[in-house]
Automatic annotation (TrEMBL):
Superkingdom, taxonomy of origin: Bacteria
Any Pfam family the entry gives: Hydrolase_3
Source organism per UniProt: Rhizobium freirei PRF 81
Entry keyword annotation includes Zinc: no
Keyword line: Hydrolase, Plasmid
InterPro entries: HAD-like_sf, HAD_sf, SIS_dom_sf
Molecular function terms, GO-annotated: carbohydrate derivative binding; hydrolase activity
Protein name in the entry: Sucrose-6F-phosphate phosphohydrolase
Entry's Gene Ontology BP terms: carbohydrate derivative metabolic process
Length: 645
């Protein structure tokens, strides 16, 4: 039997205390990435309220568009260039699982899953696709009853705290805490006032809830709970949309209706003028929600949770266990419609379909027979020449390829290390071409046996300095900028926007710009080029990595690592694997030859830089897929028979 609703309300204070103290580093990192894109927040049932809160926070703090969708809408409307967030307390309902499966195979730039259960089917699905940001947050109260309560307060509070801290809103969060803590107290004067004011509404069958932008979350949750627990009819409108015809309900059915106004500091004057015009014989209740936007949003949710309890008492229904009819259980477990996958004009496997879609920049299903046949032919020819070759060495990019960019300051995963050691032990040659410096040397020395260090060539700072892994003197982190970069480095340091929003690191042959906030790589890219043009700097080029913009001397290239190897091993093929193969990615030059594989972005060239990973995989998982198909015979590397098909 579900929990009594009153018991759920009693746990809210502990849930908020948990949300105030829980570690949010991973959540902040995911929000940092989301800040670069518009956002689609996806939820159903109670989690739909959390989706509305996420949209409010994203638009408020980043200024980027965000929208709410249900899982059914996700299955029908593919979006590109968007950060997708799925929210689910239990992570087990058929709708959210179907939405996750759909989005995983589309491989969006970000897919984040916020779930309240570590052992849920949703979490298990995401672990099979490690590029997904999986954010597990089980609230201390455990599983909700019939209605979402503590999971909802926990999710929304964590999101609000993470957005505030990530966007220099620490003061706003602490101000919100001071207000919310009072509303969670059983002795709260504000809560007692809410209860007294709303008591007159429950004798009427319909309640019109009017709200402003900052109190919308509370209004949305009230509608959800009143409907799901059958407490009464609820209609929602913001103060101005109410004026566009919604008020007519009161003109015709005022005798069975009441008005509940959620009022914030932002819309107080408008709310008062609106309520003054409503006929006096219609019951009206004002729930005052002062404070900053974050405080108002969370307070509106708490108001909705408490009002649900009071309405339930008035009509004799416990919202925590209203009873579920048999047809309701059957409805809950109905599957979403099949994705309606368009039949391909040419029969191809799922790996080939994914490879062609990544390369062409559009789905294989959208192509006619002739176009798809052309891409299929190019793919078949590329894979055939690749798997039939024997390579003298393999050169890996580092960030995004051997280590996940989100965890780039951690050591490489054990499974990646095991495969590298397998290749080295069998006599294969391995090299690294990275935009970073000595941190890569130190990390690799920690995980790779010392007996292999002399044979592992490392190209630091995008190939500017090259040395065996054993050489502790390279790179030279103390050297001043070379002649081509010296004056440009000073000009970049003096740029007011870069000084405020970016961290600049100057090396001998490379200047690195890394955003401190969610300023996108595109913005850094534009500013870098503007300064280069203004200073008339020559002999430099600009590339983008998964986390920074690098400005290097014209002679610098990751291909320098390949050429150094060729000087040692002779003119034999060398395999290159990286993640940023699309111009101006910093692996573009490394992957522009025919002996290359991308684990993420590809170039537009049909004769190079394909991504042949399984659908729904990218980054380190794709690298692992590739190198597990590599074998070493007589010191040369080659793909096993039928690899990458």
């Amino acid at each position: 039997m579900a929990k009594p609703y009153a018991k759920e309300i009693d746990s809210l204070e502990a849930t908020f205390a948990w949300a105030k103290s829980k570690d949010i580093d991973d959540l902040r990192a995911a929000i940092r990435t989301a800040g670069l894109f518009p956002l689609q927040a996806i939820g159903s049932g109670g989690s739909l309220t959390a989706a509305h809160a996420l949209v409010t926070l994203h638009q408020t703090f980043t200024g980027r568009l965000a929208s709410v969708s249900t899982p059914l809408e996700v299955s029908a409307d593919p979006l590109v260039g968007v950060s997708h967030w799925l929210l689910s307390a239990g992570g087990g309902n058929v709708d959210i699982i179907a939405a996750a499966k759909t989005l995983v195979t589309r491989e969006p730039r970000q897919l984040a899953i916020m779930c309240g259960r570590e052992d849920s089917p949703l979490a298990d699905l995401c672990r099979r696709h490690p590029y997904v940001d999986l954010l597990i947050a089980p609230p201390p109260a455990g599983k909700d009853g019939f209605l979402a309560t503590n999971s909802l307060l926990g999710f929304i509070s964590l999101l609000a705290r993470a957005y505030a801290f990530e966007h220099d809103g620490d003061r706003e969060w602490h101000a919100a805490v001071a207000i919310v803590d009072q509303l969670l107290s059983a002795q709260s004067d504000a809560v007692a006032s809410w209860r007294a004011k709303t008591g007159s509404l429950w004798s009427r069958g319909t309640t019109l809830v009017v709200h402003g932008p900052m109190t919308k979350v509370g209004a949305i949750d009230l509608e959800s709970k009143f409907t799901e627990a059958a407490l009464g009819n609820l209609q929602l409108a913001d103060y101005r949309n109410f004026a566009h015809g919604r008020h007519h309900w009161l003109a015709k059915r005022g005798d069975i209706s009441g008005v509940l106004a959620l009022v914030s500091d932002h819309d107080r004057a408008l709310a008062e003028k609106t309520l003054d015009l409503i006929p006096g014989d219609i019951p009206k209740a004002v729930v005052d929600l002062p404070g900053t936007p974050v405080a108002t949003m969370i307070s509106s949710l708490i108001a909705a949770l408490r009002i649900t309890e009071w309405a339930g008492l008035a009509v004799g229904i416990d919202p925590g266990r209203p009873g579920v009819p048999d047809f309701g259980r059957k409805l809950y477990n109905l599957p979403l419609p099949r994705s309606g996958k368009t039949k391909l004009a040419l029969s191809i496997g799922s790996r080939d379909e994914a490879a062609i879609s990544r390369k062409a920049g559009k789905t294989a299903a959208s192509m006619d027979g002739e176009e798809l046949a052309g891409w299929k032919g190019a793919l078949t020819a590329y894979r055939k020449q690749l798997v039939n070759k024997r390579f003298s060495a393999v050169v890996f990019d580092y960030d995004g390829t051997l280590v996940d960019t989100r965890h780039r300051f951690q050591l490489p995963r054990q499974d990646i290390v095991a495969e590298l050691i397998r290749i080295l032990r069998a006599g294969g040659r391995v090299a690294i071409a990275t935009g970073r410096g000595s941190s890569v040397r130190k990390d690799l020395q920690k995980v790779l046996p010392e007996r292999y260090w002399d044979d592992i060539l490392v190209g630091y700072y995008n190939g500017a300095e090259i040395a065996p892994l054993s050489d502790a003197a390279v790179p030279d982190g103390m050297a001043a900028c070379c002649l081509e970069l010296a004056s440009l480095a000073i000009a970049l340091q003096r740029h007011p926007e870069l000084a405020k929003f970016a961290e600049q690191t100057d090396r001998q042959f490379q200047i690195t710009l890394q955003a401190k906030t969610d300023v996108g790589e595109g913005r850094l890219w534009d500013i870098a080029h503007q300064v280069i043009l203004a200073t008339e700097s020559e002999g430099v080029k600009v590339t983008r990595s998964s986390h920074s913009v690098d400005i290097v001397a014209a002679s610098v290239s990751k291909l320098n690592v390949v050429e150094r190897l060729r000087g040692q091993l002779g003119p034999t093929p060398i395999l290159a694997i990286g993640d940023r193969g699309r111009w101006p990615g910093n692996d573009f030059e490394l992957l522009r030859g025919e002996d290359s594989l991308s684990v993420d972005e590809t170039s537009v060239d049909a004769a190079s830089c394909w991504n042949l990973a399984e659908a729904g995989q990218r980054g380190v998982e794709a690298t692992l897929d590739y190198i597990r198909h590599l074998e070493v015979v007589d010191g040369h590397l080659g793909f096993v028979k039928d690899a990458l098909t």
